[in-house]
TrEMBL record:
Any matching Pfam family: TGS
Listed NCBIfam families: spoT_relA
Protein name as catalogued: GTP diphosphokinase
InterPro entries: Beta-grasp_dom_sf, HD/PDEase_dom, HD_domain, NT_sf, RelA/Spo_fam, RelA_SpoT, TGS, TGS-like
Top-level taxonomic group: Bacteria
Reaction catalysis annotation: GTP + ATP = guanosine 3'-diphosphate 5'-triphosphate + AMP
Domain HD: 43-142
Protein EC: 2.7.6.5
GO molecular function, one term: RNA binding
Length: 493
């Protein structure tokens, strides 16, 4: 059983500590002996599969070992001290970190979710690898969800799509995110899931023919220019199609990127070279070009996206990126924890976790689980727009945000004194819906203040909270003033 895992690790890290990895497997196998999964399989199959998922991400030896041992402290007689004695303090803390995520005391679902995320945030702040192991654990559990009761399936699938998939997205781990989303949809809305699978399968041959034609034509033209590239069809995950149909009112035929190709090249210069060729061969659709190389997403995702129409009227998307960008796009933060010895947290690693610092701030501010979950779902896990300050800084906000949300994201005082906004140099109303790429200049007046109507305009719970705080302070000041006036009248009388 362990041999397949060892072979996979040898492929990307021939110098791994295989003796320790084998020891971890033997300890897990011995201590899980007699335990069974819901499928009837020996329990050891689960930690072994978790370790395999981590190996597919090219993770370092401590993370692989933590994957093998992640259930031992909770479900067997193995202790923290046992793990430390055999593998050292680093691995003991990793295993303990994953174990602590499971020990939850809660009164209701909302409290459970909020507490679950609080624990994950604290674990991430200590060592991000704890969450990477947890995501691998959840992924394997979702792959084998069919053996659970219907109630449990639905509960786990909802939790996965509301919490685990968005966290994978924030960590830039798109490969994990897509599979978690598709597996969740299968149990949340099985009728629509299988209908969607059927629609995609019916057009599979037609789509494959189109993609093969695109690849052949593009390769031929890139070769003429001396650009070396790997080109392949990019699968569209079912959940993203479902979202566009369900929430954006699109029908199946209207989804542009159902057919898509991905082009991988060595350097950034070639990315733009390929883009030039694509736009020469096929007609670009206005408003469908996105440059995430010049303007990376907060999770450090970089790529060029363009949607074009060929001579037959077929619409398809082309994504262009370097091999390095592709690694980050697929595995995100996990790409920083590859097996290489002496990996240190680089500046980009820290920047990647700026959103984590914001979450830690929210944890301090929002003690009520309902407030915390509402803020997360709207301000953190929602679809986003990426906008610019006049200085060129990128600010990400929930989709549907307004200039007021932007102003309050900059600072409470900027929000409170906002009287107007310019978008791309043009004055707009305060209820204008921001679009990705907008450059926003906030107009302020120090003598101005918020209006109660703003609470209907802003999208972000954080902006609403700051507006409500302003009025609470003002009401308190008014009450104090009234009290003083009342006291003065009493003294005079």
């Amino acid at each position: 059983m362990i041999d397949k895992l060892i072979e996979k690790i040898k492929f990307y890290n021939p110098n791994a500590n295989f003796e320790q990895i084998r020891l971890a497997f033997e300890i897990a196998k011995k201590n899980h002996e007699g335990q069974k999964r819901n499928s009837g399989e020996d329990y050891i199959i689960h930690p072994l599969n978790v370790a395999m998922i981590l190996a597919e991400m090219n993770m370092d030896t401590p993370t692989i070992i933590a994957g093998l041992l992640h259930d031992t402290i909770e479900d067997t007689e193995v202790t923290f001290e046992d793990v430390e004695k055999n593998f050292g303090i680093e691995i003991a803390y990793l295993v303990d970190g994953v174990t602590k995520l499971k020990k939850l005391n809660y009164k209701n679902k909302q409290e459970k979710q909020a507490e679950n995320i609080r624990k994950m945030v604290l674990a991430m702040a200590k060592d991000i690898r704890v969450i990477i192991v947890k995501l691998a654990d959840r992924l394997h559990n979702m792959r084998t969800l069919e053996y659970m009761t219907d109630t449990k399936k639905h509960e786990k699938a909802l939790e996965t799509i509301e919490i685990y998939a968005p966290i994978a997205d924030r960590l830039g781990m798109s490969k994990i995110k897509w599979e978690l989303e598709d597996l969740s949809l299968r149990y949340i809305d099985p009728d629509k899931y299988y209908k969607l699978v059927d629609m995609v399968n019916k057009r599979r041959q037609e789509r494959e023919d189109l993609i093969n034609r695109i690849i052949a034509e593009l390769k031929q033209n890139l070769t003429k220019l001396g650009i070396v590239a790997d080109i392949n069809g990019r699968p569209k995950n079912f959940y993203s199609i479902y979202k566009k149909m369900e929430y954006k009112g699109k029908n199946f035929e209207e989804i542009y990127d159902l057919s898509a190709v991905r082009v991988l090249v060595e350097d950034i210069k070639d990315c733009y070279g390929v883009l030039g060729v694509v736009h020469t061969l096929w007609k670009p659709i206005p408003g469908r070009f996105k440059d995430y190389i010049a303007m990376p997403k907060p999770n450090k995702y970089q790529s060029l996206h363009t949607t074009v129409i060929d001579n037959h009227g077929e619409t398809f998307e082309v994504q262009i990126r370097t091999y390095e960008m592709h690694q980050t796009a697929e595995y995100g933060i996990a790409a920083h924890w590859k097996y290489k010895a002496g990996v240190s947290k680089s500046t980009s690693f820290d920047e990647n976790l700026t959103w984590l610092r914001q979450l830690l701030e929210w944890q301090k501010d929002l003690s009520d689980p309902n407030d915390f979950m509402e803020t997360l779902k709207v301000d953190f896990f929602a679809d986003e727009v990426f906008v610019f300050t006049p200085q060129g800084d990128v600010i990400n906000l929930p989709e549907g945000s307004t200039p007021l949300d932007f102003a309050y994201r900059i600072h409470s005082q900027v929000g409170n004194t906002c009287t107007g906004a310019k978008i791309n140099g043009r004055i707009v109303s305060l209820d204008y819906k921001l679009k990705s790429g907008d450059i926003i200049e906030v107009i302020t007046n120090p003598n101005s203040g918020p209006s109660h109507d703003w609470l209907k305009i802003v999208k972000s719970p954080q902006a609403k909270k700051k507006i409500n705080q302003y009025f609470k302070i003002k009401d308190r000041e008014k009450n104090i003033e009234r009290g003083k006036e009342s006291l003065e009248r009493e003294v005079k009388n």
